[in-house]
Amino acid sequence: MNKYSICIVGGASRYTPDMLTMLCNQKDRFPLRKIVLYDNEEERQNLMGKYTEVLFKDYYPEVEEIVYTTDAKEAFSDIDFALMQIRAGRLEMRESDEKIAMKHGCLGQETCGPGGFAYGMRSVPAVVDIIKEIRKYSPDSWILNYSNPAAIVAEATKRIFKDDHKIINICDMPIAIMDMYANVLGKTRKDFEPRYFGLNHFGWFTNIYDAKTGHDYLPELREILKEPVEFKTEALFEEPSWKSTFNFMSQMIRDYDEYLPNTYLQYYLYPNKMYKKSDPDYTRANEVMDGNEKITYEHLEKVVELGRIKGSEYDVDPDAGCHAEYIVDLATALANNTKEIFLIITENKGSIENLDRNMMVEIPCRVGVHGVEPLTVGEVPTFYKGMIENQYAYEKLTVDAYMEGSYQKAMKALVLNRAVINTDVARALLDDYIVANKGYWPELK
Ligand code: G6P
Ligand code: MN
Question: Which CDD domains does this entry report, sorted A to Z (predicted)?
Fold first, then answer.
């Protein structure tokens, strides 16, 4: 079997430790010869790198080379896969995005509403620069990108790297939702073959087929999920705000009688409610900084200090299920031509017949050595078509604003965002974001 060289871009991220455990756990079907962590934050990166050395010494000694570096050439030479999970401006800028939105009466969320817009304008240049560097040193590598806000980032990479079919944009939210369905029905995610349409963080499941029999579980799931249910999930989604998000799915299912919604639709379908639920002085960014982020790095420090992990009080469970596994599923599909179905953010090209061919939609695709091949979705009903077209126009204008440095387009983008709407609010938001994002955003004229 081939052994792969992978680079985690944004290696110092709080998501990396789970990713590493998952890679240990998946070594039989996706063996590594080399792992590289690349980040621009040297200190955190060193800690993560040292942690990786300890973890792999105990759980993955077969890996020949462990590299952690802030140098692009060293990081991106000789890699088969780049897994990209960067956060331009880190959580401090997420806090700024969310709080500025709240100050102007709009919901504060990292990928939805005005926060997603501000983040998009930072994320796109950072992602684009890194992809250019990767292409310099490993022109044939697969780039699996799940940097947020994925919808906007995907629209930009489609335009800037036109014929590069080896850049794949994917999000884990549908995966986490399917894990929930599986748990509720006593199955596993891999028992399902989903059908889904929409944009990233803005889509609906239309069928949850049994992968073997073809039975559609969606009707029974709809009935069960009309009321919040208990289900087993991983630590992140056990946090109170995620619990509340998953519970809110029930409200959406009661209000809309067809499909099963992505959790993020709560922000667009009930923006006032979501605004009122949030604390303008303590947003999700604060929760993450004080909670998950802190715990993660403290844990790393302890492991590095101890110099071993297996059997210690800080041990990981390499056999535990982890939804990040889908990344290895995807990489394996690309490498071994499994032709499994994934929900991918890709150019529509006629899959959804009554939507723009160039739209970056999130739809089921077969994945194999030739990359991503979208399935036919057909026509979507008027309500969803209207919602999607409005949201996509916002995403497109955001990328236009970035590429042209246009204040007008940025303002129009915000007016189209369902969480903003008013022109005066859009202007006020934009003016505050421009000040806060100095050095990250292109200049808008
Ligand atoms: C889900 C989404 C991601 C998001 C992540 C964490 O997995 O798909 O796009 O970044 O949740 O969100 P949080 O608010 O917990 O940082
Ligand atoms: Mn996502």
Answer: GH4_GlvA_pagL_like
pLDDT per position as a tens digit, 176-193: 999 999 999 999 999 999
Ligand 2 midpoint to CA 227 (Å): 24
Locate the ligand 1 atom nearest the alpha carbon of residue 148 and give its number.
9
The predicted pLDDT at position 228 comes to 97
* Residues having C-beta closer than 5 Å to ion ligand 2: 171, 173
Cβ 79 vs Cβ 50: under 8 Å: no
* Cα–Cα dist 157/129, whole Å: 11
Position of tokens 């999930």? 233
Instruction: For residue 306, report the distance from its CA to the centre of ligand 2, in Å.
Output: 34
Q: What is the pLDDT of residues 361-410, one digit of tens each?
A: 999 999 999 999 999 999 999 999 999 999 999 999 999 999 999 999 99
What DSSP letter does each residue of 188-226 carry, written as one string? -GGGEEEEEEEETTEEEEEEEEETTT--B-HHHHHHHTT
Task: Give the distance (Å) from ligand 1 centre to CA of residue 121.
Answer: 18
Annotated catalytic residue 264 = yes
pLDDT, one tens digit per residue, over 307-319 is: 999 999 999 987 7
Q: How do 192-199 and 167-169 pair as beta strands?
A: unpaired
Instruction: Using a pLDDT cut of 70, give the percent of the chain over it.
Output: 100
Ligand nearest the Cα of residue 175 is 1
Catalytic residue, from 78, 137, 164, 172: name it.
Answer: 172
Contacts of 232 (CB under 8 A, 6+ apart): 183
Looking at the CA of residue 284, tell me the nearest atom of ligand 1. 14
